[in-house]
Amino acid sequence: MNSTEIDTLNRRFGIPNHLHFSEGPSAFVLAEINNFHARATLCLQGAQVLTFQPINHEPVLYLSKAARYVGGKSVRGGIPVCWPWFGPHATDTQKPAHGFARSSLWRVIETGALNDGATRVVLELAPAPEHRALWPHDTRVQLHVSVGPTLTVELVTHNESAQPIQISEALHTYFQVSDIEAVSVSGLNGCTYVDKVTGGAPAAQQQTITIHGETDRVYLNTAAECVIHDPGLQRRIHVAKTGSRSTVVWNPWIEKALKLGDMGDDGFRSMLCVETANALDDSVSVAAGKEHRLTTIISVARV
Ligand code: TA6
Question: 260 — alpha (psi -120 to 50), left (phi > 0) or beta?
Fold first, then answer.
């Protein structure tokens, strides 16, 4: 997008003292939010929230220092949108992992300054010819973002076709932590999870989660709010959700992080993904003409 197009975006959707569009790395178009409560950055590529920092707090989301800004690729960190499938495609490994929403250019359809001082941005990915080979359904998807003391991100799937569609999805949130071995996650005790590292049979989470190696678990059939306890940053991060029956907990650890190539040497130590999802058995059927909403609500508290 050139400077004239960005000027047009600011004329149509910019909001003084709330929201400004600018050109980021590799000519990515960024929506920069700075209001009374918090600062945040989104990029139109992939409708990806990159940063969120409430006033008087440290950054809540992890954004890799070695992140690459490449057209058609998601950026390592923030909240990549995994849609209309999560993980590898169920039948065709040639199709992109985590779907095509995170690698597509979305458009701004609405912005607003809310009465409580929060800032709202709505992005949309409409059905397009270039996606038909990957996804032959008339499906419109929107991302509704509200930035205030709390970050609310809602992924809305509109099934505009005459048949039901089956989707899996995730708001693949990377959280900033003081040190991965110093944090724990509560809220999933007793939940059944599929361990993608061991590939073993589903297991039950016995207690609070701690991370001491590569961890890649899909917790199923849970609507629970999770809390990341981070004594190093003297804070708790609350991850509440609606419209989601799965929570994914992921840290690549050393070898996998080095293979990814965009997390630097020790980036894995500063991040933990707690993802609001509908994956595996929790995939969602959206009836013809109906919509489905997946929402993550992120807040931070000092301890
Ligand atoms: O959500 C965890 C996961 O599915 C991991 O298996 C790993 O693949 C991660 O997502 C990141 O995937 P990406 O394609 O963004 O490198």
Answer: alpha
